[in-house]
Amino acid sequence: xxxxxxxxxxxxxxxxxxxxxxxxxxxxxxxxxxxxxxxxxxxxxxxxxxxxxxxxxxxxxxxxxxxxxxxxxxxxxxxxxxxxxxxxxxxxxxxxxxxxxxxxxxxxxxxxxxxxxxxxxxxxxxxxxxxxxxxxxxxxxxxxxxxxxxxxxxxxxxxxxxxxxxxxxxxxxxxxxxxxxxxxxxxxxxxxxxxxxxxxxxxxxxxxxxxxxxxxxxxxxxxxxxxxxxxxxxxxxxxxxxxxxxxxxxxxxxxxxxxxxxxxxxxxxxxxxxxxxxxxxxxxxxxxxxxxxxxxxxxxxxxxxxxxxxxxxxxxxxxxxxxxxxxxxxxxxxxxxxxxxxxxxxxxxxxxxxxxxxxxxxxxxxxxxxxxxxxxxxxxxxxxxxxxxxxxxxxxxxxxxxxxxxxxxxxxxxxxxxxxxxxxxxxxxxxxxxxxxxxxxxxxxxxxxxxxxxxxxxxxxxxxxxxxxxxxxxxxxxxxxxxxxxxxxxxxxxxxxxxxxxxxxxxxxxxxxxxxxxxxxxxxxxxx
Length: 528
What we know:
Layout: H1 20-35, E1 40-42, E2 44-46, E3 49-51, E4 58-61, E5 69-73, H2 78-97, H3 100-116, H4 118-129, H5 133-156, E6 161-163, E7 171-179, E8 182-186, H6 194-205, E9 209-213, H7 219-232, E10 239-241, H8 246-255, E11 261-265, H9 268-278, E12 286-289, E13 294-298, H10 304-316, E14 326-332, H11 336-348, H12 368-384, E15 386-389, E16 408-411, E17 427-433, H13 436-443, E18 448-449, E19 451-455, H14 459-468, E20 473-476, E21 496-497, E22 516-524
Helix pairs in contact: 1-4, 2-8, 3-5, 3-7, 4-5, 5-6, 10-11
């Protein structure tokens, strides 16, 4: 992959102070390079070697234009999973004994390669999952920052080795955190590089090996991550790449008895099934992030312009296909009308179209299943309330070639199930409340607890919201994204309730320690 010159400022999900002219020139160059790589065949990678599959490949098309074949990716079977787990176990024996500084050095080189290749990576993600240019670049930048942050956690903890107190003068006691062995890493489509990198890098820097299955809708980005680790000098077998279906490759992977732990991001239904089925012989680590139904509360004292902008950006960035996306708003009845007017105005201002194009902020949903889910939810919203904006499949021109639906705002009674069900399509449910008490009660009704936001000028309301809302990632008055925008080292991304399994999330200071287990070592010194 060709390297490119870095932008003057890093692009994040809440970027400012970026030389956008330079950024777009570099992105255009990357798109041209990446489009020259379309319609190729790609194998699996097991133990550092390419592996073919007799199963028909995944013919991978772009959600922007389904006639564009991005590539044909080998589809892994249970036999490939077994080979990959075996290779990972063999490679992990040496890696787990490698001095931690050497592991950190390899992972740090991987972060550097991501930064060198970030424009090509972002261009692939834009084509593959329909991310806008800034969203795609934010994904790449976050990936490199995640590796750096997790490497620092190992460095700050001295490789997770600590001297302990003595009970008798003759003993020397040491506490060591050691790797589990082999982690299955199962990733989603929506942050195909950042989430894949974050999960796998934490496992690897801690001394584990990884068998990785990217999302069916994002195998190309996943393959590029394999190449980054390989080129950074990660020994063969430590990161095995298995493209394929969840039903075959994914199921076989997490169920394999040689897997020592699972790290997964995806739906609550799948994550819960993995959690319940994983630990048969003994309890194994199961790190799950399982989505959200994220609430934004807008109170009477709020800056309504900031609230409307924050809700719009958070609801319709990546077409609401973020675990953290705002999908419901509870607005005080006293300001509901002016807030809704501003919300509609800002949503109408979004530029819809091909997200690889400059200045387009709203692209397609990921696949035909998402389009159908959108249509069912819109029909329900029409029955139960009012569609204020949108509600249709987009037609004409580029829209006819891909999976495009309109950004949609629905005003609904609080009894609607659309306030509780995770949809992962661009529908924002808006309901009226009488105050903070009711807003918090409604927010906490959902089985999810990932992110939440509030807009209020009163410090006491903000503090009470933080204290009582059941969510792991909370924001107040965030114009750049009411419930979105977490970044490594700044906002730990932790799911409560049905959104997570450990209470300690990615981007946070306790993440890497979850990939290691504690061992106490006592040595009795002779002659003491």
